[in-house]
Known about the structure:
4 helices; 30% helix
Amino acid sequence: xxxxxxxxxxxxxxxxxxxxxxxxxxxxxxxxxxxxxxxxxxxxxxxxxxxxxxxxxxxxxxxxxxxxxxxxxxxxxxxxxxxxxxxxxxxxxxxxxxxxxxxxxxxxxxxxxxxxxxxxxxxxxxxxxxxxxxxxxxxxxxxxxxxxxxxxxxxxxxxxxxxxxxxxxxxxxxxxxxxxxxxxxxx
Length: 187
């Protein structure tokens, strides 16, 4: 016996608080994998990394922000570079970049649907980062992901970072967190 999914009106989705927030796909509220430390470390790393470009580039860095893909589709990228001005509570304009960081139960194939949505919306640059396998993938406006071993870039901006540098920073953060007494206890 198959169960029919319960469809929720857009208005109800937009007026409900989910913890953690969830995607909304054509009437269905869809959970997202997250909540693991490598995932969070990379989100924090990218937020700090992009901050140095914000003043001169006409965008702001947002984490876990609702992005309206279409009338009945909302996604929540792990990180996005949203164009300015951005006066709304929900981003409606195609960002310069969407980043998805894989959780331990995610796969690149599963995230492809999200990247396809971003590409259909007009996002010309998408990154998928796998902290577990230490791999990075990029897609242009066509949404086709390809393995990236060199530099991750955002076309039309000065943003570029070596894939090795991303994972070197993740390694540094993980090593720092594993050292007993590594926290600063000075007041």
